[in-house]
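Run log, item B.
One chain of 208 residues. Sequence copied directly from the ordering sheet:
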Amino acid sequence: MSVVLYHHPYSRAANVLWMLEEVGIEYELRFVDMMAGAQKQPEFVALNPMGKLPILTDSGLVVTESAAIGLYLADRYASGRLAPALDDPARGTYLRWSLFAPSVIEPGAMAKLSKWDFKPSQAGWGSFEAMMVAMESALKGRDFVLGDRFSMADVIFGGTLRYMLRFKLIEPTPLFSDYAGRLGNRAALQKSDSINARIAEEHGLKMG
């Protein structure tokens, strides 16, 4: 199998599984026992010096960071379907919100949760309130980030939002809840959720 995802259902690799199902290629899952610290072992650190999941390999190529993995998979295996073509103006919006998720939503939500003391003007993610307004602007009047067109940006941005809603890190406004509901209707997401739940059960893990 050329594409391998090193996976744990409690990690960001769970969302990468959705990416793979949307792309529709064959892949292999390799469970990594994070609770035992397996991701910190030398063979994994050789793949990702951060000692973190997800890690995806494709015929010897190593890709880490979930947003990067999503963009890579869409460009290589679903260009024009899940990724706008290089000369498509929609690609700017696609990249904008794909990268907004890890660079703004994740640290912004963590800063609020952990009550970090910082100056929003000096932080790349700004204030939580500005972040929320920006997220709403990405979805207002649209079914998906690109309007009526589903893309990998929705897996990255939407996957992050689904996580934040699930663990009550972001308020479930009607706009966000409706969007999450549309994503939840996708067959690829339903299948990946089922696989993650099955793997958690096989390894005696309780899905939160």
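Observations after the first pass:
- DSSP finds eight helices and four strands in the chain.
- Strands lie at 3-7, 28-31, 55-58, 61-64.
Flagged for discussion on Thursday.
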